[in-house]
Automatic annotation (TrEMBL):
Name of the featured protein: Galactokinase
EC number per UniProt: 2.7.1.6
Native source organism of the sequence: Deinococcus arenicola
Gene Ontology MF annotations: galactokinase activity
Pfam families (alphabetical): GalKase_gal_bdg, GHMP_kinases_C, GHMP_kinases_N
Entry similarity comment: Belongs to the GHMP kinase family. GalK subfamily.
InterPro entries: Galactokinase, GalKase_N, GHMP_kinase_C_dom, GHMP_kinase_C_sf, GHMP_kinase_N_dom, GHMP_knse_ATP-bd_CS, Mevalonate/galactokinase, Ribosomal_Su5_D2-typ_SF
Domain annotation Galactokinase N-terminal: ranges: 3-38
Residue span, GHMP kinase C-terminal domain: 248-321
Amino acid sequence: MPEVTASAPGRVNLLGEHTDYQGGFVLPTAIPQRATVGLGRNGSSTHVLYSANLEKTLRVAVGEVGTEFAPYLTGCLQLSGVTEGLNIHISSEVPSGGLSSSAALEVATLRALRELYGLELDDVALALRGVQVEHEFVGVKCGVMDQLASSLANTRTLLLVDTRSLERRAVPFPAGAEVLVMDSGVPRRLAESGYNERRTQVEEAARLLGVRELRDVTDISVVETLPSPLKERARHVISENARVLEGLEADAAQFGQLMNATHASLRDDYAVSHPLVDDLVALLQAQPDVFGARITGAGFGGAVVALVREGTAAAVGTAVLADYGTLGKVVVP
């Protein structure tokens, strides 16, 4: 049996996509599904990592990174100074693709390590260590939203985060609405997708505009001076920050329209959608009880999120799947 067990939730982001690595604003919430990690000392110089979902065991020498799912765990171990072999059992209810399954795994692992070794890590520092794992061990130059949401968010409210200052506050859901998340059935791998390329592009756009980050641009028309595709990438980030701030005062119908605009921007300017995802989003947007819908997460496949009339999520999901076919499945009614 493990010496300690810890868990952390996945997240779904309603507004503020691809802004967190440019100092922007994000508005995620936690989902009920969680990743769970049990760990304990095994008295050897080898970590034994078991994934219940994959029914697979990996053995990695202490100080090594390993392959497959190992880097998400061994990165946490190395950054936490673990020098002895551990048995680690992981299981997760968080679907992969847009719902921060990797962040949930990292945060759960770091929570377990904090308990086992008495690490002095508050919830923000723990999240930032998870981001460091992604950068240094997984190879994804992600922003801070996913790990912060997994570490700090709950399922009852939205979490507004200023990703530059890390200031945050709880924001109520629009009245009369609830969230529906659906799996498009389109798999994606961030490190093998255009995610890192997009980050490089917006960093170059900020440099050409003479600002620290695109967060600092107050006049969106200045992006017209940039060459393509930097112009389109920057336009998405700047307009998306504005949508988050507008969403704070929006009712359900207005909030839904902002989500629709975000999807169009992610599809056309940031080019991180997928034809099947676009089909699923269009089917959702056509439902009378749907206020708005969009791709969520880094993109290139994965999940979509819809804001729907309260009490209708299950019915909307069932109706949309009848048209979408057997590729997708409802994952968070």
